[in-house]
């Protein structure tokens, strides 16, 4: 018999057990399920109890969870809700302001220029997953401010990943206005072409399959097709250097509103997949953060960078939103909705660590910043939205 | 960017694409989806096109698929439908006859005694997954003969895994009647305790969660709980040396018939998970079989052992069924329903290969026997059932 701790059944049952414990904790402290799941994940991870390590399998399942979650979120959005100049302005400033803020903070802490650039990048990308899930759980996904948050966060993610590519080129000293522009152009083209292709080709293909004689015999086909599109878009986004979850989101948006006659509902199916896999994803965010590398000196930096992360999004996204006609409450909700850095910042930090651009303490600081902004956001959002 | 071929999105979208191609092929040749999926899996695997290799990730997802599939199948079965002396007799003879048949065939092909024992074991275990899925797709899961097949196949699987443990002890020369009896006892206790615990404790816990105030707030909890039970039972089965899928099946049987008021249906949820993950599982069975190691000499052995695999199940299960009062058609359906060896035989062969008990050609022969019996069964069953 193979090693129990690496048995898939052991890991799945433990992760789901932990997810349930997260629900209990969340219910006890009156907060969204996400918060409880990350906290319980932290408790069972290597930092504290050490019951679960971030194995290849946990990583794969969490990865599936993030993709499925964003696909489900995308299914709630109409294309025209996102394509807006307003969101472009908010998303753009939501990248530039945290980038500059993080850069100067890092310089103040004696980091060299090119290290400061990448620390700034880690502050740029919003983790749509956390905010979207909080909004989903509160039934607020269809409110105008939710649409603005998601719209801006998608643009913001695309720009942040472009910023990562630019920062990488800076580190190797080959950056130019031309190459930066090229990265941005690829990103915008992907969004545009992906959405149009989905809307006018893939959606029609779904209808075509559903109305064929095969769908009556095999009602499962459309669901498999829809999930294939989600992963294919995720893969395509990765190929051109974006995050897979951005691709999955675009896939969801593309397939939104397709009606079915004979087949099982892919919307319902994706929702069930989300229940299991997004739970594992949120638990894994807690497991991933190993806080044992913590020192007292580092703590100060963590708190300051977290504060900068929050303030720069409030300023970079909230103020433009107000200037573009939103009221103060909605602008604050939007600003805070953009605060969580979650897995995106963790991934940026990991890439920088692997490339030797930042060292272990800076890495831990960025991971903790991501975690803190992730835990704070649902708490604040919930209170703001319940007012 | 990491290697595309190992990207999770790439593998998932390709596997789902292949699953869809399997549907198209099945529809074209008028056979169940499983057959098409295995054949297309074979085509894209290392044997032919080499598009997909059996990576750790594919293996994990396929493993999840097998567990989820048997859980879904279990949800269709009442406990009292399976606990039958009749099925015990059929299951027992369905293990003994193929074991003896395989043993003597291997001796005739000049295999040594302890190698022949394990080759015999590879012929014992029925892959319930294939037959159950064929029956499920044809809407015949609730027919009496289907119940008999599944009931006998579960017992047969338990006994086959006990046989594997006994054969392993034979190879190391420490087997005794006492230790063989102990393995069997553990298996029977697991089935009994697992089913009773599920029926009288876990089912009530599900009802309790569903009726609590938390279920209204978090309707996802019951589904997560049910899947946790499925994986936990799978893990428990593995710990005592049975196959995880037997555990998942018992979990399904235990939770059968639990009604819900406030929560999302775990039965529906598990069914949606099955659509995606069982497809990947069936495709992976094709990918796993690398037929490049094939020689002309081996071909003869493969054909003979496949024939023995078929005949011994027809005789070992079909004849007792007839003797116990079934008509000829149902007895034949039952006998053929027990023919597919699928993943169970492949796992036995893999374990034997890793322990050095059999060599590469014998391994390939067993894998091909498993594949052939797996492909033949749905074809024959379908024709028998359509009569």
Explain the overall architecture.
Two copies of one chain form a homodimer. With 387 residues, chain A is mainly α. Helix content of chain A is 78%, strand content 0%. The first copy, chain A, contains 17 helices and no strands. Chain A has helices at 8-29, 33-44, 56-74, 79-82, 85-108, 113-122, 128-137, 144-171, 177-211, 213-217, 221-239, 244-255, 266-288, 296-323, 328-337, 342-354, 360-386. In chain A, helix 3 packs across helix 13 and helix 16 runs antiparallel to helix 17. The mean pLDDT of chain A is 84. The interface between A and B is large, with 52 and 51 residues.
So, CATH architecture of chain A?
Up-down Bundle
CATH topology of chain A: Na+/H+ antiporter like fold
State Rg of chain A.
20 Å
- Total number of β-strand segments of chain A? 0
Largest sheet of chain A: none
Oligomerization state: homodimer
The structural class of chain A is: mainly alpha
Q: How much helicity do the residues of chain A have?
A: over 70%
- Please tell me the overall pLDDT of chain A: 84
Low-confidence stretches of chain A: none
User: What is the overall silhouette of chain A?
Assistant: globular
Largest interface: A-B, 52 and 51 residues
Main CATH class of chain A: Mainly Alpha
Alpha plus pi helix count of chain A: 17
Number of domains of chain A: 1
- In sequence order, what are the helices and strands of chain A, one letter per element? HHHHHHHHHHHHHHHHH
Question: What is the CA-CA span between the terminal residues of chain A?
Answer: 55 Å
> β content of chain A, as a range?
under 5%
């Amino acid at each position: 018999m193979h090693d129990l701790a690496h048995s898939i059944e052991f890991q799945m049952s433990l992760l789901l057990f932990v997810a349930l414990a997260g629900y209990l904790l969340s219910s006890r402290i009156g907060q969204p399920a996400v918060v409880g799941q990350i906290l319980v994940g932290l408790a069972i991870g290597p930092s504290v109890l050490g019951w679960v390590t971030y194995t290849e399998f946990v990583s794969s399942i969490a990865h599936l969870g993030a993709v499925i979650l964003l696909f489900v979120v995308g299914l709630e959005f109409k294309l025209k809700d996102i394509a807006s100049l307003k969101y472009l302005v908010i998303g753009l400033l939501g990248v530039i302001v945290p980038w500059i803020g993080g850069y100067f903070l890092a310089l103040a802490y004696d980091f060299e220029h090119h290290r400061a650039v990448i620390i700034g990048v880690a502050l740029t990308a919003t983790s749509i997953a956390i905010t979207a899930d909080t909004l989903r759980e509160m039934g607020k996904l269809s409110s105008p401010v939710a649409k603005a948050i998601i719209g801006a966060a998608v643009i913001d993610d695309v720009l942040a990943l472009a910023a990562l590519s630019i920062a990488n080129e800076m580190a190797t000293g080959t950056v130019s206005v031309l190459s930066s522009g090229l990265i941005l152009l690829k990103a915008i083209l992907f969004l545009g072409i992906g959405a149009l292709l989905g809307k006018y080709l893939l959606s029609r293909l779904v209808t075509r399959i559903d109305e064929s004689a095969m769908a009556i015999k095999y009602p499962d086909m459309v669901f498999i097709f829809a999930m294939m599109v989600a992963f294919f878009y995720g893969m395509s986004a990765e190929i051109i250097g974006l995050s897979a979850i951005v691709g999955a989101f675009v896939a969801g948006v593309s397939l939104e509103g397709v009606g079915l006659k004979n087949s099982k509902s892919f919307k319902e199916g994706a929702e069930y997949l989300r229940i299991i896999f997004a739970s594992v994803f949120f638990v894994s965010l807690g497991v991933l953060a190993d806080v044992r590398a913590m020192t007292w000196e580092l703590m100060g930096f963590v708190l300051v960078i977290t504060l900068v992360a929050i303030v720069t999004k409030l300023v970079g996204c909230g103020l433009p939103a107000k200037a573009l006609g939103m009221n103060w409450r909605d602008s604050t909700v939007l600003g805070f909705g953009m605060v969580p850095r979650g897995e995106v910042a963790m991934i940026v930090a990991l890439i920088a660590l692997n490339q030797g651009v930042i060292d272990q303490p800076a890495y831990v600081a960025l991971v903790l910043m991501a975690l803190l902004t992730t835990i704070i956001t649902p708490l604040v959002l919930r209170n703001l939205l319940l007012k």
